Protein: GNAT family N-acetyltransferase
Amino acid sequence: MTAPRERDRMITLSHVPADRLHELTHLQQHPGQYANNGAQMILDDTPDLSFHAIHADGELVGMFKLDPLYAQRHDFAKETDLGMRGVLIDMAHQGKGFGTAAMAALPAYAARQYPDKGRLVLTVNLLNPAAYAAYRGAGFRDEGGIYAGGSRGPQHILWADLPLTGTAPCSARSSTS
Structure:
């Protein structure tokens, strides 16, 4: 039996409760990338922040954080917006389409987690074209807004609508195209 091609692997998203955050600590970025490593990311004690895992066929490949109080921290967001922060795809799994597939699955997943929210909002550094391309490839819109308050420089502001029902599947196939 042959191993599945990377693009055929199923991506799933799941909430990680506080007592299991240690499972994310081994996730690493390449030096110089924009997100912190997993061990640093789980130390974020921002009120109401939630942590989520990205799996490919059951294997942990990444993580992200959702922030329901994003509008209180960023004046460009509305109260009905859900913020996404700190996306990390482990360096061993980058370039395989997992990030784009996870971001494509994210709106349906986020709608189920936060049914009172209408849009997903995130910022991505202007000097991070790979992440920008992944978000845009996953359906996030760039309406031209720039957030100048990023800790590592100016950032694009990207948006994705959340489904009204929140009943769409929260998994996707990765794609290397």
In short: Residues 1-5, 166-171, 173-177 have pLDDT under 50 and may be disordered. Residues 40 and 73 are 20 Å apart (CA to CA). The longest strand covers residues 59-67. The longest helix spans residues 98-113.
